[in-house]
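dumping this here so i dont lose it
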């Protein structure tokens, strides 16, 4: 056979096979392929995160950096050619850490060991000269009642219950330990404690103290006591030392301060729906972060992934039926003001939100989604797993979504959360090592693609209540 003729026949066969393969795919499979190609070959999320992390840094509510993040992300959304981009004002708390904290424990007079410590968000400062007192170690809030005022008054309470390492779901391990951080100071103060130190919410043994929010509840302000987190290595060292010498004294000094609330913003962009513009789909993350690191995993990753959803939909030429919004919420970390404000405005404007998706579990490899919905809705959604299976994002579980979209909850809305691999998340959560170099570009882009795929399906097929 003539070589040129043979080559043409082979090309024709290849073309026919390719055509058969493409047309053998469903429209949804073809759209998923476009989504993943757009995310993995020309994604913008990693570059956006690079700027947020390395040019702006930590974005604590009420800070200059938080405002810089608002300005930057609005500018980027403006550049995408969306139908509308705007800022939604919201009043947020302004807590400032002040000069670096300092801590040590003293085994005998003059013999001290410095330990890594950081103030918990929302805590009051120590007296100007710091606090030095005996230490009483407990495993949880319930131990306080057993010790009573006689065992606690005039001392520093050391909460040292670790996250449960046997739990594969590390968020469950976090939930099982975080009450010490959130409520420990309030409860200890009722028994006359001078201050509290809390083992960092971290499964790894290291020297990074992890901050996080705490609250005083209804406790009178004059009874508020300072609260700080100690690194896991230091917690183990202190615990061992106390067993050898219960008379150890602990010293810490912190200079944080709570100011009056200030105005900030949720950053919002939307693509208007073509057939049901009155039905809203929201995808988002929180723009604020703690101040120790640059907030790359918590939650810069979720913000840029959410922005990327709208960019990818436009890039693939998809025309949504429903109005799709990206919302970058302000003040998730120490108040949830942005989430509540968005829900309040949605209710005031009588907006019908049918689906909301949040990414706030880090920029790691996506494994699937959790859904907060009716049983019937969840069964319907599970039929979509086969579309995600080729991309290894087919772990669909019932229960849980996200903190910022939580205020939108009603009887009809379906809410979901992206669920990346969680095993490394608490190594960085709320700590100084939550920085850009710990985010993998491909993992971040895979998460953005998965989110886009789920938003596409809810837009195309709606929910049981909209069919």
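and the seq i came up w/
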């Amino acid at each position: 056979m003539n070589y040129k003729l043979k080559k043409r026949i082979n090309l024709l066969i290849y073309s026919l096979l390719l055509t058969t393969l493409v047309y053998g795919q469903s429209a949804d499979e073809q759209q998923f392929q476009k989504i993943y190609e757009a995310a993995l070959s020309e994604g913008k999320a990693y570059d956006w995160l690079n700027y947020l992390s390395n040019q702006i840094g930590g974005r604590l509510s009420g800070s200059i950096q938080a405002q810089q993040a608002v300005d930057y992300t609005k500018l980027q959304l403006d550049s995408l050619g969306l139908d509308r981009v705007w800022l939604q004002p919201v009043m947020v708390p302004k807590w400032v850490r002040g000069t670096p904290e300092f801590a040590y424990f003293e085994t005998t007079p003059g013999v001290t060991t410095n330990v890594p410590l950081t103030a918990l968000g929302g805590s009051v400062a120590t007296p100007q000269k710091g606090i030095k007192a005996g230490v009483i170690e407990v495993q949880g809030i319930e131990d306080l009642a057993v010790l009573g005022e006689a065992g606690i008054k005039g001392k520093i309470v050391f909460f040292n219950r670790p996250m449960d390492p046997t739990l594969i779901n590390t968020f469950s391990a976090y939930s099982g330990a975080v009450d010490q951080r959130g409520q420990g100071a309030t409860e200890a103060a009722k028994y006359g404690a001078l201050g509290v130190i809390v083992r960092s919410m971290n499964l790894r043994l290291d020297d990074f103290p992890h901050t996080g929010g705490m609250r005083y509840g209804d406790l009178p302000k004059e009874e508020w006591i300072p609260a700080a987190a100690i690194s896991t290595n230091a917690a183990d060292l202190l615990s061992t030392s106390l067993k050898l010498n219960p008379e150890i004294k602990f010293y810490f000094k912190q200079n944080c301060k709570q100011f009056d609330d200030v105005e900030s913003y949720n950053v919002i962009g939307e693509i208007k729906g073509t057939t049901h513009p009155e039905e809203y789909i929201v995808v988002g993350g929180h723009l604020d972060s703690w101040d120790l690191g640059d907030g790359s995993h918590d939650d810069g990753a979720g913000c840029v992934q959410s922005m990327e959803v709208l960019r990818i939909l436009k890039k693939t030429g998809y025309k949504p039926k429903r109005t799709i919004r990206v919302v970058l919420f302000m003040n998730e970390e120490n108040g949830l003001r942005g989430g509540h404000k968005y829900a309040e405005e949605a209710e005031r404007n009588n907006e019908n939100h049918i689906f909301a998706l949040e990414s706030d579990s880090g920029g790691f490899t996506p494994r699937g989604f959790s859904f907060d919905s009716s049983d019937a809705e969840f069964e319907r959604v599970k039929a979509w797993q086969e579309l995600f299976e080729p991309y290894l994002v087919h772990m669909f579980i019932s229960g849980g979504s996200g903190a910022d979209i939580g205020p939108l909850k009603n009887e009809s809305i379906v809410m979901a959360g992206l669920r990346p691999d969680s095993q490394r998340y608490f190594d960085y959560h709320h700590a100084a090592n939550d920085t850009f170099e710990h985010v993998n570009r491909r993992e971040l882009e895979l998460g953005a693609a998965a989110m886009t795929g789920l938003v596409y399906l809810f837009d195309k097929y709606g929910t049981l209540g909209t069919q």
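The two ends are 58 Å apart (CA to CA).
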